[in-house]
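Protein modeling request. Please complete all fields; requests missing the sequence field cannot be processed.
Requester role: graduate student
Desired output: 3D structure, token encoding
Chains: 1
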Amino acid sequence: MEKERNYTKGDYKRLGERIRKEPQKIAQKDYQMLQDLRIVHKSALAVIFTALHSAALKIDRDSVCTYRIKRIESIISKLLRFQNMEAQRIADIAGCRCIMTSDENVIKLYRFLKDEEKKLPFIIRNEKNYIDTPKKNGYRSIHLNVQTKETPKKVVEIQLRSLDQHNWATLVEISDVLFQSKLKELGDKVNPDLYEFHRLLAKRDSELTLSDKRKISQVSGKYHYLEKLGTLFTENHLNLRAQRNKLKASRNEPFLLISTDMEGKPELKDFSNFDDAETAYFEMFLNNPENKNIVLTHFKNTTFDKISIAYSNYFMTYNETLFRILNSIADVSVYAFNNYRIGEFKKNYKAFWRILSKWFGNKQKEVGLYNIDKNIRKSNKKKKEWTSSITSNVEKVNKTITNMHEEFNSNIWHYFIKRIRIKLEKKLASKGFLLLRND
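Delivered output (439 residues):
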């Protein structure tokens, strides 16, 4: 399947011309040509990924590494955006991504690849360091274009990201799906509010000002951002968890075919070898009346949570950045309470508990399904994964609540505004909102 067909530079040039002339009427032979271009990267990807994955684990045991071949529609989109580009010269048709737990570990891995280049099966052709020089929208990452030393010499893009930056980047794509904002493609042209919202979230916690947090809280409330994503994430998480629990436990290095419909609902299929997976991908691409988002990827000895993290823009099951949004709302509530800003306090504190009430309801639903899922009884690994996931989420939410209430000023001069807070809490509780208090 990987044998490269004898396409010439002229063939690729004419392919680009045909696609640009009639992008809505692309012939199947041209789709096949693009598919052939994709699959010739198989060996190069496998070699580079193996070396990269090994290096990442030496530096960071909790790193997540994966690889994918660019989707056909993404190749077409790139040819349409760049009128003089030829398909075979696109540098990121094949790509590996390493997600490290911190910026420090990203830099360590980057330096390791540079220092050990002579021992690695690839050379670094060029690089872009968006950590030292972030993009205008806040994007931070390191991109390396590498080439295999052995023939056939193929170019593969390597992306090195911290977990925080990966969460941010995938959340931008999730917003594009749910709010049709086209932030990744058009920046602030379609939705300036959400563009600024994500630009602020790209900052480190220590860089966020009170004004930034107010803006984050305001935009989140305007779009009911956390409520919408929280509900969708829970539905998808439970759906995907059930699919994952049915997969064969013996497959430690699966190829995963992920598809997401227009409503953000995912579907997962696994394959034990590259050829079967690529055949299924191409067939699904050609027969896709629902216009699903489809991607084929590869993992090695991974967990459900790591899969969800790596492709959260497809799975839409979890994103750590949501906690940063919630923390911003909590911080604004605390500031308003401690500075007698009654209206601002009531608005943000009420929003905080409305969001968490929804979250608690979703989590109760998950626990209920956990208790009746027959598949996890057959696998201690899957049972442990799920238990750990639920516990971790509850602990993070409880920490946010505890931290917020500890910051409230208990000075006697705050007696009257505290009465307003208690009255508001009783009102919320009477409407079914679940509140946890530590004071």
